[in-house]
């Protein structure tokens, strides 16, 4: 075999939560894989994104042996608050579902996962470029790339997992005429900050306010994560720290409004809001997982959890194939994932529509929004529906068979 060609069983593009968890699940099943990642290790470990882990995600990370720091430093939350009309209303998860969620930053999850790969002597290959997948219609697919030292290389595989996120390259390898694309772009975005300050409240607050949505989340007792609804093309230059604190405080106003304690803002960014699904999530020997196949607006806190649920299904299907049980589970991969994906799409769209100010809507629409919020917090059935989706619908339990 020429020197620049390496063989593995599963070639994985992307070291986000999907790619990193997939490789660990495969290792548990005795299946070799290699992860190729465009960014540096430091970049992946510092990229600030999600913060809420469903109970199924927590269980999976524990089962993989990477849950210790999460258990020590993560914050178990038993509910969230919906705030509107100047009042907060609590949704109690254990009472409504018997379950909880864990607030623990995605970059911390990524650090723990990378550390485990490095410990096992199988670090992702960081800082690769020019990634191209070939032969996905054959049973000898390959990934062509340039490594961090600038050398052109080929990874020959049995299967390729496209875990390279929304802006990755693998989805583009599927003939467009075979992909159905479902998409909705929202007329608003989130301005997110990290601040060195104490928690605003013991649990997350989702606030629907006439001035726009705000979310008060956490990372630790001393670091908070907060978001303000803003325009998709919002210029961060127009948001000095004082304006951010002032706007956050205004979107909390009313009865028993928490008084924000101002601290240094250490990170600011604007996140566009989009719903996006491609069907199917597979073509030949290429399997898409996570954001490469679907995006949700962050209001439901579902994106990372969906990515991890996808690879739980994929690893089980690959394990079945390598154990000689044929391709039935691989063939069912897309259908199996999409059932859960569409439920999360619905929930994320619903939370987004219920909580944001929509300037394209009229006064009738605004009244409906408030009526819906009143209904959700006052009807046990409606609160339970929100809680059941928020803590996470049943997780695929086919890993580790
Ligand atoms: P990722 O994490 O985007 O990882 C993809 C990886 O692929 C690499 N890559 C490539 N590598 C090689 N060659 C190429 N050509 C490549 N192109 C890309 C990238 O560098 C990257 O490392 O996708 P994955 O693994 O599918 O994970 C998805 C999650 O990251 C995403 O869904 C969540 O962050 C979404 N999300 C949330 N999800 C939750 O479950 N709970 C939350 O509370 C939550 N809050 C959020 C969020 C996302 C947000 N932003 C910034 C989009 C809050 C925000 C603000
Ligand atoms: C976060 O902490 O970053 C976070 C929490 C809840 C969401 C979205 C993001 O719905």
Write the layout of secondary structure elements.
Blueprint: E1 5-7, E2 10-13, H1 17-28, E3 33-36, H2 41-46, E4 52-53, H3 55-63, H4 68-73, E5 75-77, E6 79-84, E7 87-92, H5 93-97, E8 101-103, H6 106-119, E9 129-134, E10 142-146, E11 152-156, E12 159-162, E13 180-196, E14 204-207, E15 214-218, E16 223-230, H7 241-250, E17 265-279, E18 282-283, E19 286-288, E20 294-295, H8 303-322, H9 328-355, H10 363-378, H11 380-391
Bound molecules: 8-demethyl-8-dimethylamino-flavin-adenine-dinucleotide (RFL) and P-hydroxybenzoic acid.
The site of P-hydroxybenzoic acid has 10 residues, from strand 15.
* CATH hierarchy, class of the domain at 5-76 and 101-182 and 274-357: Alpha Beta
Shape: globular
Query: Given the helix and strand composition, which structural class is it?
Result: alpha+beta
Mean pLDDT: 96
Ligand types: 8-demethyl-8-dimethylamino-flavin-adenine-dinucleotide, P-hydroxybenzoic acid
What portion of residues belong to β-strands?
Answer: 25-35%
Q: What is the number of strand segments?
A: 20
The low-confidence parts are none
Quote the CATH topology of the domain at 5-76 and 101-182 and 274-357: FAD/NAD(P)-binding domain
The CATH homology group name of the domain at 5-76 and 101-182 and 274-357: FAD/NAD(P)-binding domain
Strand order of the largest sheet: 7-6-14-15-16-13-17-20
Task: Bin the helical content.
Answer: 25-40%
Total of helices:
11
